[in-house]
Amino acid sequence: MTIRTALVRAAAIAALGLTTSGCVAKYVPVEAGQPAAEVTVHKSYSGTNLWIGGMQSYNLGPDEFCDTTKLGAVLSMLTEDSKALRVAPGKPIVLSVTTTYMWGTGAYSSASSTCFNAVRFTPEQDQQYDVRHTFDVDDKYCRLIITDRATGKRVRDAEPLPLSECRKRARR
Hints:
Layout: H1 3-19, E1 25-26, E2 37-42, E3 45-46, E4 52-61, E5 70-76, E6 82-87, E7 93-103, E8 110-121, E9 128-136, E10 141-148, E11 159-161
Parallel strand pairs: 1-5, 2-9, 3-9
Antiparallel strand pairs: 2-6, 4-5, 4-7, 7-8, 8-11, 9-10
């Protein structure tokens, strides 16, 4: 690994820390052989080049609260283009996504533009879904799109949630 690559990776990890609310535990997928649906998250931002890098963090949980949210995937210029996650079918999940653009290179990188969306939907057993968080750095507009892979159509029960980040539970 070159010094430049290590610096860019460190900047990406630091930016991830800035874009998520507190520490997020890693998502544990449904075990093989158990009933499941497959949710594949795809790297889906545009407008990157040598000086502009993008990164997406995909979180999921049973509700919109921070203490139940788990980190499913981080996609960036240093990772694969997609990641498949096995999820429990028949139960609503909240999928929240943050896309962050970083300007500059290496130690001179800084988070410059961030977009967050969250949606609730209920995956069905043995179904496959594709998830894309589209964000164009030039337009400063993003949207979270979930499609049924078999039909190519948007998931009907996907309910956008009006959140700017995960919610904190009220203390008792």
